[in-house]
From TrEMBL:
Pfam families assigned: Hepar_II_III_C
One GO cellular component term noted in the UniProt record for this chain: cell envelope
Highest rank taxon of the organism: Bacteria
One example GO MF annotation: lyase activity
Lineage of source species: Bacteria, Pseudomonadati, Bacteroidota, Bacteroidia, Bacteroidales
Compartment annotation: Cell envelope
Name this polypeptide is given: Heparinase II/III-like C-terminal domain-containing protein
Domain Heparinase II/III-like C-terminal: 437-596
Organism: uncultured Dysgonomonas sp
SUPFAM superfamilies from the UniProt entry: Chondroitin AC/alginate lyase
Amino acid sequence: MIKYRIKILILLFCILPLVTNAQDGFFSSILTREILDKEIVQPSGFRPIPKAGDALWQQVPEGVKNAYIREAEKNLNKPWESIAATEFMEFYISGNRMKYEFKLFDQRSRLEFAVIAELLENKGRFVDEIINGVWKICEETWWGAPAHYKTGMLPDKEEAMFIDLFFSETAQMLSWVHYLMKDQLDEKSPVVSKRLELEIQTRMLDDCLRQDFWWKSNKMNWGTWITSNWLISVMLIETDRNKQLDAIQQILKTMDGFYEEYPDDGGCDEGPSYWNRAAASLFESMDLLRMASDGRIDFSSDEKIRQMGAYYWKMYIAGLYFVNFADARPTIVPNVSIVYRFGEYIHDDRLVNLAGYVAHRENYDSGIFPNNDFVLYNDRPFLYGLGRQLFLLNLIDEIMAGNPAPPLVKNTWQSNLQIFTARQFDESTDGFYFAAKGGHNDESHNHNDVGTFSLYSYGQPLLIDLGVEQYTKYTFGNNRYDLWTMQSAYHNLPTINGIMQEAGREFSARNVKTRISDKEQSFFVDIAKAYSKEANVDFWNRTITLKSSGEFLVTEDFNLLKVTGDSTFISLMVYGDVYINTNGDITLTSDDGKRYRLTYDKKKLKPQKAYYVIKDPWLKASWKKGVTRIKLFLTGRNKKDKTTYILKEIL
């Protein structure tokens, strides 16, 4: 089987001990220009995987090979259509960004499938398709998405081009096409590969070096996502050694900022679906540097980097469900390529086994990836990354031969993010699982959700975090918190004296603690500070407990400065059927048919329910049967009180 990885060697300049102790400029202070020049392979010498025509591509499993070829054959002899300018403008007119993006992604994916099909078949059948796709993309005015183009309704060729996420992803894809297929393209016409080099050089490589883009110092996932793509283009296309080293030094500076901003617990406050293009993209750059230095540049022993990888399995629930606070989605098809390689890099068996579990679950030895589930839950195959697909093809046999055991750990604690997870039984999806958070309301992709929780039972969602609707211009605009999915009233949280939580760093959790014993696992948080002064709340201590006996309890212990005429109620977002009889008894039925009784103090709380039809495509992918909100209204006028509600399976 093809091997892309290079054996780890001892660093010549004692880099590993220095890296571990580095304080400022984690990457750039160690990898000086002199070290880079000595250790990084010379331009045009980078050979991370075999090129087209290499016999090793024929060793890919037959089922995988046939699946890619069938997908590519669907588009043979079809024209490559231009996307209308008015569709680009639609984002600025109506707020819709997906119509253009989906067409953009689908065309990129079409080219990727053609390239892989040609690699695996090696008969020349798809070369014309590849040429047409390359030419069409090279003719585009701009390679990015309209939501990221800020200076006008249409890209202007006379302006300095802004490089966004999908611009860089396109450059990365085209760099791989050039590296893999140059000889095959030249047989048809040398102009094609020449055009590819020119467009990548002028649009991506030269502009990245010359322009001071905000994402170079922003310390969030844009920087690490773009620089991982930039680095691939640098290593595969750049022929000038000085420019190559200049670019790597700039990339290291951006990596520094991302690393330094990241919490020591390795937690991604954007959620696990964004981890794929946050910590995972940082790893991608580190892995490229390792490959380009014959294994001598290796940061795998750093504890924070190890925690960045471990975060992913810590947020794993069951099946394809992950903890989904912020804009993360509850259902994710993990990128097996990056999860497996990251796990191998940091020697994390749980991460490696998670990749193996998904590969077996999704039949990666005989199916196509990205598969239908990936498209459903992660939008479009283009976001999978051509490089990631190529490395995955090299590793299929190895991954499928590994241990396909999902990481079902009993509890985890992210001290910086203040996220606690607990399951009733270790290494099992039986019984309850809950995740709860403290934090603050100025996190990346923030929802106003300090103190919320989600509850799963037997691996199925019961009390949920909705996630986020399909992105529009309003998602990241001034009216973000007018969207219902962002509001605390549509999370499992109280609305106090008619007041929801507010957005901002100051609206945060207090006194966050956890307690673990043989009999129970608990999370404690005071959420009062997450509300404005108009809520008139002194403290609101919330205790969330999972008992080993199978009871899930939430205790609300609060002191209000006054009780206004506005109502105070606790929201519970349910995925499943909710039945409330005339006596106020509440029964929940989950999607798998299991039944649960919600008991509460009927003298203090009065229930009410409302059902919400889900029409948004992103939400519907996870909550296709709609959701129900239970409101538990406080009936008394006591300023200081305490009440507990309990959920237990009906056996």
